[in-house]
């Protein structure tokens, strides 16, 4: 406990699922948190339940650049700076590419990719002013092998992997470490909206460890990367997948 004492962090898509678990893990380690999410009811409840009353809720659609800049600036000003950014927000929709409507594709890119760009733009000046920090992008094992009907999602996560490597080089001289986490199948409410019980079981059976990762395990990895324990790690995408990508789909 206390590995993030005195730190401040912004987590996007923090109203539930992996984002909420990461925010709670950070708060349990002593960090002050900004919970960003476009669902006001969910994000307010999530922030209110943060360990140590260390959460602040910001209703924010990360696809809105101005809204992101305002939210991050407001939190950094009130909290006395910013040390950590977690880009977790995503918009799910699985379908064959040929059947994808333009508005759905635009929404997925606006939230999953452009939202990360706007968050980085908003956070970087504050991280530099702090003398360094940590950025964690949420990628996916979908980048490593084909997943049925996940073409747009995979493309977005692949772009985040590339962005992670590029920003690690660009921001490294400012002592800002940029990394990504690529979870394997995790039964969050969002993922369960597109994957049924049979789907979860088939994923578990294909995993060499015979178990699926939990959201809390992803959060533990995020704490490691954000803390001083990860001081020399930058530009990597860490897979937390029980070796499912090693054996293939």
TrEMBL record:
Originating species: Pollutimonas bauzanensis
PANTHER family for the chain: OXIDOREDUCTASE, SHORT-CHAIN DEHYDROGENASE/REDUCTASE FAMILY (AFU_ORTHOLOGUE AFUA_5G02870), SHORT-CHAIN DEHYDROGENASE_REDUCTASE FAMILY PROTEIN
SMART domains xrefs: PKS_KR
GO molecular function, one term: oxidoreductase activity
Superkingdom in the source lineage: Bacteria
Keywords, in A-Z order: Oxidoreductase
Occurrences of domain Ketoreductase (ranges): 7-203
Signal peptide limits: none
Family of this protein: Belongs to the short-chain dehydrogenases/reductases (SDR) family.
Name of the protein this chain belongs to: 3-oxoacyl-[acyl-carrier protein] reductase
InterPro entries in alphabetical order: KR_dom, NAD(P)-bd_dom_sf, SDR_fam
